[in-house]
Specification:
By secondary structure, the protein is an alpha+beta fold. The protein has ten helices and 17 strands. The chain has a five-stranded parallel beta sheet with strand order 2-1-3-6-7, sandwiched between helices. Helix 3 runs parallel beside helix 4.
């Protein structure tokens, strides 16, 4: 339903149209607000204003104020709140002019119902001569401003409408800024939870970690990692990925990461560690379709060995003096797929004296290469890693991510989050 000029819709007694009101003697009748020539510039093309007024005479006075003020706007009229509310929802006028005395609502009750559906619309209240306190109460209740009917002048009316719209825009901008600030703070808290500072007790292990969201300005997803060195000198690392993207998945990733660190510090290892993590996931997830993959790694540097448990997670890279190789280990199912029935075999690996392990989430290997359907995959990642193997750890990690993203740029860029955890060591002989 579009906006109609007030004068074209007003009817007098017995449904007779009310003719346009003449101006001073010898002048042409006043024109509708939709045909005001030489209107002053307005920030928006033609603001729309919906008047909610049951008195045709007062409605016509508002139209005259619009015409006399040379204010270029589209003015519509609703005779009751019941008629107005659907129009506000559908048409989203820039401003609602609300009379507080309507056949189906009175006073602040009418205002509250309008504000509930107003959204981005400014609300300007019309009161009688003896009701200025009601106007002040309306502003306190959420209206942008109020006007007293018997004291209206065209310029005052135009300024009040304009300022109400601008004030509403300012309120919306302030609310959006506050929401963005809160979102940034929440992202920061989630990031600290997902991507913590490693807990290391000596300098034998060096950690280089990176996280890249799949989309520019996106919220963190459910990728997480952690590194803990226990009092016995053993280093434990984990990397994981909760299915899906968004704050709920990120919060679940934080929960799993914190649970993993707590269980490791408490001495839980092997199959039991993943069983407990699965119990946490099942208890905390938002639906049965949510799952998580992860790799848990235990490094015994003094014994030059490592133990690996994989829950449906990709393999990893091992760097040594002999070059780079991709390492798989027998995986168990993802967490949450077979609650209370899954088994995750532990795999033992020999470690080089001087080497590194690179763990990653599947966002690193699932990006497309070029415009075709081909994805990078583990073999493609290994080829990139061998080309970058001469670089030091941080340059190697950054180079891997940059190369992967460059390959996927032609197909629209990377759409999945990527976490990468690189641990290197140099044990004396």
């Amino acid at each position: 339903m579009g906006f109609e000029p007030v004068g074209a819709a007003i009817t007098g007694g017995a449904g007779r149209p009310v003719p346009p009101q003449p101006g001073p003697a010898g002048t042409a009748p006043r024109r509708s607000a939709t045909a005001v020539p030489h209107a002053p510039a307005w920030p928006e093309a033609r603001p729309t204003v919906l008047l909610i007024e049951d008195d045709p005479g007062d409605a016509l006075l508002v139209e005259e104020l619009v015409t006399d003020s040379d204010m270029a706007l589209d003015l519509g009229w609703a005779r009751s709140l019941g008629e107005a509310l659907p129009r506000i929802r559908e048409e989203r006028p820039h401003c609602v002019l609300l009379d507080l005395h309507l056949p189906d609502a009175q006073g602040l009750q009418a205002l509250e119902r309008v504000i509930e559906v107003a959204g981005t619309s400014a609300v300007l209240v019309l009161t009688g001569l003896a009701e200025e306190q009601a106007g002040l109460a309306a502003v306190t209740a959420g209206a942008q401003d109020y006007l007293v009917k018997g004291r209206l002048e065209p310029d005052l009316f135009a300024r009040a409408v304009r300022y109400s719209i601008q004030r509403k825009h300012a309120e919306l901008a302030s609310a959006a800024l506050q929401a963005e600030r809160l979102r940034a703070e929440e992202n920061s808290r989630l990031e600290r939870g997902l991507l913590p500072t490693p807990l290391l007790r000596d300098d034998r292990i060096r950690v280089c970690a990176r996280y890249r969201p799949g989309r520019a300005h996106a919220l963190l997803g459910g990728d997480f990692y952690d590194v803990v060195q226990t009092r016995d000198g053993v280093t434990h690392a984990v990397i994981g990925d909760v299915s899906g993207h968004g704050p709920y998945e990120a919060a679940l990733g934080v929960c799993l990461r914190v649970a993993w660190r707590s269980f490791v510090l408490a001495g839980v290892r092997g199959q039991r560690l993943l069983e407990l993590l699965e119990e946490v996931l099942v208890a905390e997830r938002s639906g049965p379709e949510i799952f998580a993959s992860l790799t848990s790694l235990t490094l015994h540097l003094g014994e030059r060995r490592a133990e690996v448990l994989r829950a449906g997670h990709p393999g990893f890279l091992i760097r040594s003096a002999a070059g780079v190789r991709h390492q798989d280990a027998p995986p168990g199912p993802v967490l949450g797929l077979l609650p209370e029935a899954a088994e995750w075999p532990a795999t033992r690996l020999e470690l080089p004296l001087d080497g590194a392990i690179t763990l990653y989430t599947d966002g690193l290997i699932e990006g497309r290469t070029g415009n075709g359907p081909d994805r990078l995959g583990e073999e493609g990642l290994l080829a990139l890693a061998r080309r970058l193997d001469a670089l030091p750890s941080e340059a190697f990690v950054d180079g891997l991510i940059d190369e992967v993203r460059a390959l996927s740029a032609e197909s629209g860029g990377h759409t999945d989050d990527t976490a990468l955890l690189h641990l290197d060591w140099n044990e004396p002989t």
